[in-house]
Amino acid sequence: MKAVVFGGSGFVGSHVADRLSEAGHEVTIFDVRESTYLRDDQHMIVGSILDDSAVRGAVGGNDWVLNFAGMMDLDECQQKPVQAVELNVLGNLRILDASAKSKVKRFVFASSAYVFSKVGAIYSNTKQASELFIDTYSRLHGLEYTIVRYGSLYGTRCDMRNSLYRIIHDAITAGRIEYHGDGTERRDYIHVRDAADLTLRIFTGEFVNKHVLLTGRDTLAYADLLNMISEMMDHQVTIAYTSNKRKAHYKLTPYSFSPQIGTKLVNNPYVDMGQGLLEIMHEVHDAIRHEKEN
Questions:
Q1: DSSP string spanning 6-68?
Q2: How buried is residue 140: exposed, middle or buried, by Cβ count under 10 Å (0-12/13-18/19+)?
Q3: Which of 26, 188, 192, 205 is in Cβ range 3.0-4.6 Å of 155 for a Cys bridge?
Q4: Which of 193, 221, 201 is nearest to 264 (CA)?
Q5: Minimum mean pLDDT among 9-13, 209-213, 218-222: which range?
Q6: Phi then psi for 243, rounded to 5 degrees?
Q7: 72 lies in which domain range?
Q8: How many helices (H) and strands (E) does the chain have?
């Protein structure tokens, strides 16, 4: 099969693109910057999802279209709501429209567990709007789709927009973690490689026109997570808790009542949390060393 991955230079998209290539599919990556993870057997298109002509050209001839592009940081969406709508809603709509006109076999949209939530604010709004457009296009044009609602992701290739990466970066560079909350907040973390593996499983007929929820297997309180990181660094890290003024984040669950319920999919075996944290620590350490050498 031929697949194009929009946002394939990024954190989740690059891992999914790799899994597609490893499975023997012909993969094209479309992004605003060339992927630093580009494989020899992958094609690269540098462009914007707001460019109709570029999007149509990238979609044409592909069997599968996967959209991981857009603004993913909740706080950034709060600060730049117009840009968030342009990228997350209008950008997705351009890809969706091109997919329907090209009669692709499956359109896959990277949504979020926050789509259920009122606390996700602007970010949630953009995901909700995009999901509605996808459902409508399916009814109007017969376009088959799968919407993947990702939970709290972590792992290699992320950056300072990822909460765990920021925490580990601060722990290594400053010996201090400042956490905005009381530590009782809970998350179901899923390693990005597990998420990528599960994403490939949705291309079976079982998940046509379905909403799939990908979250971790175990729920972890932030206080336990921070203590784990400190312990892995020989307790050389100070942990400071401050009041949380951020309104776009949840405490125990992202879910608010919604009639559109998704199917939860989990990976077995899966990446151990401690091993996943160690990988990020090595990646952050290598990035800091590279900056100092240059």
A1: ETTTSHHHHHHHHHHHHTT-EEEEEESS--TT--TTEEEEE--TT-HHHHHHHHTT-SEEEE-
A2: exposed
A3: 192
A4: 201
A5: 218-222
A6: -65, 145
A7: 2-293
A8: 10, 14
Token pair in block for residue 244: 């949380």
- Tokens linked to 126: 């953009």
DSSP bridge pairs for 149: 111, 213
Report the domain count for the chain.
Answer: 1
Instruction: Give the pLDDT confidence of 93-137 residue by residue, as tens digits.
Output: 999 999 999 999 999 999 998 887 777 789 999 999 999 999 999
Task: State whether residue 288 is helix, strand or coil.
Answer: helix
SS3 state at 239: strand
Distance CA 147, CA 210 (A): 6
Domain CATH code at residue 253: 3.40.50.720
Model pLDDT for residues 143-182, shown as the tens digit of each residue: 999 999 998 899 999 988 888 899 999 999 999 999 988 8
